[in-house]
Q: What sequence folds into this?
């Protein structure tokens, strides 16, 4: 079956530091890949997505590239802010039913 | 963002009682989903719906049932709640395409004593 593995947190950074969250996946077909973000006390919001190999998703200064050869979709941001403190989830979906499979989530804490 | 609401937002109940959670969306989305969120597990799919009266099981469906009598509403029922069903429950919906983005509700925190 499908699975998503992402690095465990918490990740603690200083403001303006570089952030990387690793995500690798296992899938039987050709999935779409997503990063969702959950701010404290809220539901999940889509941060970015990529639907085919070598696509790069980007939003709010975050980027991730769909790497089929390494089955990875690592999230990066060059200069984090305190407002980026949240839990980040990597996920995949395959076309049938558009069901999402999530990683365990990575909590990120950015200190001023 | 899609208009998707959940009710109640918080609920405390006792073991063995029935519980129904409601999800309501105003986007005329075809697909709707129920997930549970537990520490270390991310979100796991309980049930999903691909149209009115069309539902199917997800990864962790045991002990849960769903119904969808209207496009906008998707109900999750715990027939006899257990302590292992203490969790945060999220509803999501997505549009016509099978790869469309899923939009999530704010969540329901359920505690089973």
A:
């Amino acid at each position: 079956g499908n699975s998503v593995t992402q690095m465990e947190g918490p990740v603690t950074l200083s403001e303006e530091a570089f952030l990387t969250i690793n995500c690798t996946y296992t899938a039987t077909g050709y999935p779409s890949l997503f990063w969702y973000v959950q701010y404290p006390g809220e539901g999940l919001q889509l941060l970015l997505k990529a639907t085919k190999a070598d696509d790069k998703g980007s939003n709010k200064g975050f980027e991730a590239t769909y790497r089929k050869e390494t089955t990875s979709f690592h999230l990066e941001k060059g200069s984090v802010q305190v407002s980026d403190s949240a839990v980040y989830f990597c996920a995949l979906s395959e076309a049938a039913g558009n069901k999402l499979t999530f990683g365990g989530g990575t909590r990120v804490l950015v200190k001023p | 963002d899609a208009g998707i609401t959940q009710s109640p937002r918080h609920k405390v109940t006792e073991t063995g009682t029935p519980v129904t959670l409601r999800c309501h969306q105003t986007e005329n989305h075809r697909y709707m989903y129920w997930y549970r969120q537990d520490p270390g597990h991310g979100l796991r799919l309980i049930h999903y719906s691909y149209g009115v009266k069309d539902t199917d099981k997800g990864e962790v469906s045991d002990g849960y049932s769903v119904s969808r009598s209207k496009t906008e509403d998707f109900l999750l029922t715990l027939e006899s709640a257990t302590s292992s069903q203490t969790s945060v429950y999220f509803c999501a919906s997505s549009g016509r395409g099978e790869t469309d983005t899923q939009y999530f509700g704010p969540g329901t925190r359920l505690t089973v004593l």
In short: Chain A touches chain B through 25 residues (CB under 8 Å). The mean pLDDT of chain A is 92.
